[in-house]
Write a structure and sequence with these properties.
homodimer; 77 residues; four-stranded mixed beta sheet; 32% strand
Chain lengths: 77, 77
């Protein structure tokens, strides 16, 4: 895994963080996953250790929870 | 301001986040400030909107609170 994955759920906090992360890391190193639209990715995010969104899963497998938009439970609905 | 500033306080959560951020952004784009050692920078961090550490102040002036190590109040002691 060489890309980072940015998980979000379309919330305002998520979108603001997404813009910053895109600027800092660059598009080519980043996969962006909207868990509200791609709910089939929720399980994968959960297994990686994502507790809330927005969150960045780094290439080394660590999760950086960035600010706080919503819990993963909220995203599951 | 073209660099990001990573504020931390030496906590384990901070150091782990620092390593990830350094890998993602690269040393040349990053200033690292240890608020426990450089307490004269606390006021500046507070004014920028930092509420807890570790936190990343981006070149656009937004604060990304990354995971949670300690509140700024704790850092002030």
């Amino acid at each position: 895994m060489s890309k980072s994955i940015f998980y979000h759920a379309g919330c305002p906090v998520c979108l603001s963080a997404e813009e910053e992360i895109l600027t800092l890391i660059g598009k080519q190193g980043l996969e962006i996953v909207h868990l509200g639209e791609s709910s089939n990715r929720i399980e994968e995010a959960e297994k990686a250790g994502v507790k809330s969104v927005p969150a960045l899963l780094t290439p080394s497998g660590n999760v950086l929870h960035i600010n706080y938009g919503a819990s993963l439970a909220d995203v599951k609905g």
